[in-house]
Every structure is written in structure tokens, then in C-alpha cells.
Amino acid sequence: MIADCLAGLKVLDLSMYIPGPLATLWLSDLGAEVIKVESPAGDPMRTMGPVDEDGTTAFYKLANANKTIVTLDLKSAEGKARFAEMVAKADVLLEGFRPGVLDRLGFGLKRLHEINPRLVHCALSGYGGTGPFATRAGHDVTYLAVTGLLAASGPAERPVMTFPPLADHAGAMLAVNAILAALLKRSTSGKGTSIDISLAEAALSWMGGVLTMAHRWGDPKREHDLINGGAAFYRIYKTKDGRFAAIAALEEKFWQSFCTALDKPEWLSRQAEPLPQTALIAEMEALFASRSLAEWTALLEPADCTFEPVLEPHEVANHPHHQARGFTHLSEQGLVEVVLPVLMDGERPRQRRPLAEKPAKMVISGWS
């Protein structure tokens, strides 16, 4: 079973907001037992955004399902003692502090590995543990700004911010990969390790192609870039009813299918026009504005021409493909959950349980 992959693995989550909690959530989908340790003030995500009747946001509940929440004051002697007991029994500790914070609390790397030599410690911070930006404050949009990803995204008028936050989610994925690799290494060496992951560098790792182009030919103008809307055949168009349609006819065969479905043989040779394809884009904008999204879907979906209607978020969970794959479901709390989208031998992760809050003493006694 997929939930048995990490069965018996004990993970301490000392992070907040999105990246760390999301990484440990995915580890829990694979079977790990996750204890999230929070200060008496709690994770700010509890109240950041619209709150439910219980005073907690849906975002917090989604990111921390499957987990047990423990409140500890790591500045107090009792809190430090309880945390040390947890570290001694843990396999993984993921923390999201700025570099140096855990050291000042008395749990630097040396101390952690004295308590538990087999511990895999993952520090997930904005800019990493070294370098001039190590202690610099930041959030997703500033991480993308410093990597060039923000400048490379969006139409000519201005860069476009991503939602959900790209660096946060890329960092969570990178943390999971690194933790699993460190656990594999530990299985042969018997020793723990320390991992240093930067959210900015998680985004930077996606930028090799863009940076190479800039190095060779200079920074491209976004209006001349295929991905940012310079190509008529790879673009988002507004329909008559105010909805949007996406076309991604990169290959000639798909462009041919698209033109055939539209009865536009005169457009077949125009795929090769230089970017930006301003004239063709204007013609296609006028054409798409002449029909509703439902009408375009009925015409183009059977054509196999890389067309998709741009779904609104409320439409996604009930989409027939997502329904068939079974990774989204509505929880008893009214949350639309997306479990780790992985099939192993045809099996997907189990439905998540709601988060639970327990005293530290009870959790420690339950960890053998």
C-alpha cells in the first residue's frame, strides 16, 4: 500500500505557512507520522485569510491534515526538555526558521545530532543557510524576483505573480525529494544528515533554460516569447461570455487540426510567422470573442487540437478526468482536498484525517 511506504517514520514539523507544512503533508500521505510543533502563538496560517466558525482558516486545515499538533514554548526549560525528548525519537526534523534561530533556542546541528545521530534535519528557509541573503526577510514574490523568474513571466506590460505561490510549492517538493534521499542514504550509512534548502533556489532550479538564453542572446522581450503570449497558437483567448480558452498547438499536426476545425485553411501556413504574431493574434481574438466557451468546447474538444476551456476553481473538483483519477475529494469538514497525486500499483493515498491537537506528554509517550 502507498500509505505503507513510510510507515513507522516519525517526522517533527517545526515550520509555518505553506512550504514546510506542505512537505510534511506529502510525507504523511506516504505513511509517515507527523507531529507539528507550534509556539504558544501558533502558526500564523491559522488566521491568515477567511476563517471558519472555529476561528481557523481552511488553508491551515488543508496543509496540516493527517498531523498531530503540539504546542511547546521552546524558550522555556520545560518546552526545551519536551522537544529534546521528541528529537530523540524522531527520524526527520523539518524546520522553517531563518538561519540561526534554532541555534539560539539551543538546538543547533551539533546538539540535534548529539541527541539523535540518525536524525535527518531539513532546514527550509527563504535564501538558504549561507550567503549575504541568509538572514534576509522574504516571501514568494521576492524569491521569484531575485531568481529572474518573475521578470520572465507574463506579457510585455508587466511581470505576473503566480498563485498558488510558486517558490513555496517548489520548495516543498524539493524538501520531500531531499528528505527521501537522505533517508535512503541513512539506510546504508546508519547516520543522519543535514539538508539546507532555499525557497528562492527551488525556483532558481527551474530557470536554467531562461538563464542560458539570456546569457547567449540577452534578456528576451516577453512579447517575443512563445510562452508569454507572443505566439497566436499558444495563448489564452477571451470568449463571448467572458470566459477563457487555452490553445497550445505547438506541433504542426495540432495546428492543422485546429485550423481544420475552424475551417480556416488560410491560417495553416501562418504558424511560422515571426513572433510576436500580432496580426494573427488579433484575428484569433476576434474569432474567439464571437462564441461562448461552451460553443468553443463543443467544436474544438473533438478535434484533438490541444484546446482546453480555462476552468474556474469551483469547476475543477467535479471535472470528469479528476473524478476518474480520484485525487480530489470533499472532506467532512467541507475542504476540497488534493492528496499526493501518485499511483503505486494502481493505488492512491488514503483519505486524510483531520488534524488533531494533543499535549506534548501524550505524544511523547506514544512514540516508542
Summarize the structure.
Helices cover 38% and strands 14% of the residues. It is an alpha/beta fold and 368 residues long. Helix 1 (19-29) crosses helix 7 (166-189).
Please outline the helices and strands.
Blueprint: E1 10-14, H1 19-29, E2 33-38, H2 58-63, E3 67-71, H3 77-89, E4 92-95, H4 101-104, H5 109-115, E5 120-125, H6 140-147, H7 166-189, E6 193-198, H8 199-204, H9 208-217, H10 226-230, E7 234-238, E8 244-248, H11 252-262, H12 278-288, H13 293-300, E9 307-309, H14 313-316, H15 320-325, E10 328-330, E11 336-338, E12 356-357, H16 360-366
Helix pairs in contact: 1-7
Indicate the structural class.
alpha/beta
* Proportion of helical residues: 25-40%
| CATH architecture verdict of the largest domain | 3-Layer(aba) Sandwich
Number of helices: 16
Q: How would you state the average pLDDT, rounded?
A: 94
Q: Could you name the CATH topology of the largest domain?
A: Rossmann fold
Per DSSP E runs of 2 or more residues, the count of β-strands stands at: 12
- Overall domain count: 2
Protein name: Alpha-methylacyl-CoA racemase
GO molecular function: catalytic activity
Pfam families: CoA_transf_3 (PF02515)
InterPro entries: CoA-transferase_III, CoA-Trfase_fam_III, CoA-Trfase_III_dom3_sf, CoA-Trfase_III_dom_1_sf
General description of the model:
Strands 6-5-4-1-2-3-12 form a 7-stranded parallel beta sheet, sandwiched between helices. The chain has 2 domains: 2-206 and 329-366, Rossmann fold (3-Layer(aba) Sandwich), CATH 3.40.50.10540; 234-310, formyl-coa transferase, domain 3 (2-Layer Sandwich), CATH 3.30.1540.10. It starts with 9 loop residues before the first strand and ends with a helix. The chain has 16 helices and 12 strands. It has 368 residues and is of the alpha/beta class. It is 38% helix and 14% strand. The chain is elongated and about 75 Å long.
